[in-house]
Amino acid sequence: MPILKPISGHGSTVGIRRYLEKKNRALARDFFNLSWDERKDIDTPEDKKEFVLWDVEMDATRAEFGHDEPWHGMRARTFKHFVLSPDPDDAIGLAELRELSSAWALRFFPDNQIAIVYHDDNARGIPHAHIVVNSTNLLTGNRMHTEHPEDLNRALQDMARERGLSGLSNQRKPSEGKADAAEKNKVNAPRTRRNVYLGRQEREIAKAGGYTWVGDIRARVALAKTMAASEAEFFAILDALDVHVADNSSKARRDDWIFSLADWPSKKVSGERLGYTYGKQMLQRRFDRSGAYRPTEKSIDEIRKRAENAVELNDLEDLSKLSAALETCAKFDVESLEEFDARLATLSRRGQIGSEGAQRLMQAKEYMTEHGLMPQQVRYEQRQEELVDRRRSRTNQNEQRSLAARQREQQRRRNER
Question: What's 153's domain CATH number?
């Protein structure tokens, strides 16, 4: 079945165009309702498309209609970025993918400016489409609004099957009986004791270089839990990374949080399904510990900016690298580039310089250095001040958790709109 992943864009489309077309990796481009339109310019040479400034045109259109301004106190959603990934087993060609992607985009957004960029930069070289839709409806002058977002994916599955491709059935499976649910609730042990848990399907998809929404959520939660000093801050960071959080059912086998992508609310996973350290109980214990690892405040600001940018651009490769580097820093308690060298020197003295831990440290140091995400060294006085401030911030956990509960309720209400 094809996978459709939506991402909300905020601000200019200059960044998303730069990301999609950098290093000449665009296999092809399709445009609609722009200065170039596939339905009219059929005889124009294909290579001329690289000169179409579709980002500039989209930004100018929104500015003309005033659609860059906040809406009801919330930052403006200026465009939607959909990633359409065909089923690898269908062995779809670029021409077939372009026809399917264009037909789907025009079915739902016939009066919006559309730019589709095609890539094959994955492990198996399978083409996939990045569909960027500007928020302004040129016919009505209104902002983009999808009343039933789930219809976008349902229609894609139907359209795939009509073309002889595999598609997910839109018929709902019968729910489990009450007896089965009651039996599950008798079990009160965690699903796994592994820090990170990957199911068979996720392992297979990841091995093939494909996208897994569970892995996407795990990377964002990993970043949030490592940067947050409290439960309230944890939820605030997740909100910025477009992840919604809710309490699971009171009838569930264990008390846990449910994480979902803001633009893909049907994709939900419990914390312990991601791994033991991602469960609600372990996370709350982490926030209660005054000595839990956390980067310096300056590092957190830079890391958060990079993470939010990766989420908006759908740069999942960079998001995963950032998450892995930060997890390594937490494991080895590294807060500066100088401390990387100290940890590696210790492993070298123990004869473990070729170990997996040493390899992870070197990779994390290279990433953090390349992107300027850590200071060269941390002054002792500065570190002591941060520790004191951190202890003070945890003196009233009940107040923090009350704030976190209010944030979850706000997320739930936004998700229902």
Answer: 3.30.930.30
Q: At what angle do helices 231-240 and 213-227 cross, to 10 degrees?
A: 140
Is the same domain home to 84 and 132? yes
For residue 338, what are the domain limits?
181-416
Q: Which residue matches tokens 């589709």?
A: 116
Q: How far is CA 95 from CA 30, 104, 118, 165, 384, in A?
A: 11, 14, 11, 14, 60
User: Do residues 315 and 211 lie in contact, with contact meaning Cβ atoms separated by under 8 Å?
Assistant: no
Residues 243 and 196 in one domain: yes
Distance of CA 235 to the CA centre of its chain: 15
Q: Are 158 and 190 found together in one domain?
A: no
Q: Are residues 186 and 148 in the same domain?
A: no
Residue 295 phi, psi (nearest 5):
-65, 170
Same-domain pairing of 135 and 187: no
- Residue 278: inside a domain, yes or no? yes
List the end-to-end C-alpha distance of the chain, in Å, as a whole number: 28
In a domain, 209, yes or no: yes
The C-alpha atoms of residue 81 and residue 115 are separated, in whole angstroms, by: 10
- Among 108, 134, 162, the domain-final residue is 162
Looking at the structure, tell me whether residues 199 and 151 fall in a common domain: no
Q: What is the mean pLDDT of each run of 10 residues along the chain (417 residues)?
A: 86 93 90 93 80 95 91 82 89 92 95 95 82 95 84 90 73 47 51 78 74 89 91 91 90 89 88 91 85 83 91 85 92 90 91 91 94 80 53 58 71 68
Domain identity same for 189 and 137: no
Strands, sheet with 264-270, edge to edge from the N-terminal-most edge strand = 243-247, 257-261, 264-270
The total of other beta-carbon atoms located within 10 Å of residue 337's CB is 16
**Span 254-312, pLDDT tens digits:** 889 999 998 888 889 999 999 988 999 899 988 887 667 888 888 899 999 999 888 88
Report how many domains make up the chain: 2
Question: Considering the chain, what is the average pLDDT of its residues?
Answer: 84
